[in-house]
């Protein structure tokens, strides 16, 4: 049996011109997660990450917290969908930068609707793969882990969409359920799979044990 830890990146820069950049809090979340892994005595035989900047920065923070340095495998099939392109399919007019709770809710209502249509094959967001190809990228990473790391401990750093997709694949979840899983994943959260050469099995989802102490209560974020 092997163990795969799927980690969502730390808080990025939601609403900024460049989302693909960890905030200062996102960096702290990542380092804190690495400290937790070190405290638990968890060591990784292999490291895999998407190719986005926030993925690499999160992995670097984790390794800093673990006081560990290692090479990792880059896997572009673990990159997130383009949320702006998804929303543009159902709301062609540019959205204002969200500055209120209602504007944030409006943003995510549109995102849910766009994701549902993309997953159904009803729309083709500009610059994005089909949903079938997106799923294949995630499934390929899971296949790689099973084929090459049986009996080992593997860390995979990605985003909410690919992690929710991985959970959906393992559980045989519907598209609607996969979207809801996606919307609930917290920054730097851990999802754990056990795996054999034949399959993955969900052990835990969206856990933040490294932030459970009251002193980290304000470090829990979603975007």
Automatic annotation (TrEMBL):
Source species, domain of life: Bacteria
Pfam families, A to Z: His_Phos_1
A GO MF term: kinase activity
Keywords: Hydrolase, Kinase, Transferase
InterPro entries per UniProt: His_Pase_superF_clade-1, His_PPase_superfam, Mito_Ser/Thr_phosphatase
The protein's name in its UniProt record: Phosphoglycerate kinase
